[in-house]
Amino acid sequence: MVGRILGGIATSLLFSAFESWLVAEHFKRGFDQQWLSLTFSKAIFLGNGLVAILSGLFGNLLVDTLSLGPVSPFDAAAIFLAIGMAVILSSWTENYGDSSESKDLLTQFKGAAVTIASDEKIALLGAIQSLFEGSMYTFVFLWTPALSPNDEEIPHGFIFATFMLASMLGSSIASRLLARNSTRVESYMQIIFVISSASLLLPILTNFLVTPSKVKGGGITFAGCLQVLGFCTFEACVGIFWPSIMKMRSQYIPEEARSTIMNFFRIPLNIFVCIVLYNVNAFPITFMFGMCSIFLFVASILQRRLAAIGDKPKTEDWAMLKERDAEDEPLNAP
């Protein structure tokens, strides 16, 4: 339990502090804003994709080949974390924020809550992130029993590596989409959420269209193969989601409260996942996939709303500018 509490703190830091530091450092050095999207895409491609595959293979080597036991991957992870800490301490500059505004923890949380409540775009972004990530983490627990309902012998490591390859493909697609000035992230993410929603409906469809096998053991079934295709499609959507949501967070969340607001978003996410896992045995697995599919479709509706209001301030500013020019025009006349 102590380990999980510390792990929760570490996860919150992992998903907020690094991104906040990167965005602040990026703009402090005067880099082009478009480069930020490319950095996010490469981070997901290399970090969530390639490194995940290599880590899985290395962990398998430690446990199976070298017979060092199931704890050995955790020990190896601690070594790599120590190396990362040394690199960060020696080469990164600290981001202290605005030192003139020294706020305690409670004040920061209150400020973040007020910001979320007063800005519809930030509230929508938080809801979209919670719905998608909640469905994604639920999928992590469901894909294994979905592919082996009768204790079939499935190649877990190979399937996981395939999922990671699909995620890498998605992040590669995202980098190309984000590089286009004519393509808005708010627009194409609506399509991505609909595709991800449809992909998680496959377990339900195969349950009705393909006669389930009642034979215990054996290899992966035909229905399982179809589900793997759907799951790979979902993982590709995950690969597109990460750099895209990072891009939108850098656009809409204010710098002074970015880390606090991002951690606020994780509260409903963790509650959602806990509720799902607590009741995972109370409902059939098809019901759980159907629920995730509905949540993803709701995310697409909220994304459509975000796209609709995303340009409103720009439109209002342009109207005010035209009105001001019209007022100044008689004064400038000869």
Task: Explain how this protein is built.
With 334 residues, this protein is mainly alpha-helical. It has 13 helices and no strands. It is found in: Cell membrane. This is Molybdate-anion transporter.
Short description:
The chain is mostly helical. It has helices spanning 2-14, 17-28, 33-65, 72-91, 105-118, 120-147, 156-179, 185-199, 202-209, 222-252, 258-278, 285-310, 312-332.
Q: How many beta-strand segments?
A: 0
Oligomer description: single chain
Cα-based radius of gyration, to the nearest Å:
23 Å
> What is the string of SSEs from the N terminus onward?
HHHHHHHHHHHHH
Which structural class best describes the helix and strand composition?
mainly alpha
- Mean pLDDT rating: 83
List low-confidence stretches. Answer: 314-322, 330-334
Question: How many H/I helical runs?
Answer: 13
Question: Main β-sheet, in a few words?
Answer: none
Q: In percent terms, what proportion of residues is strand?
A: under 5%
Could you give the distance between the termini? Answer: 78 Å
Shape label: globular
Percent range of helical residues: over 70%
Set down the secondary structure blueprint.
Layout: H1 2-14, H2 17-28, H3 33-65, H4 72-91, H5 105-118, H6 120-147, H7 156-179, H8 185-199, H9 202-209, H10 222-252, H11 258-278, H12 285-310, H13 312-332
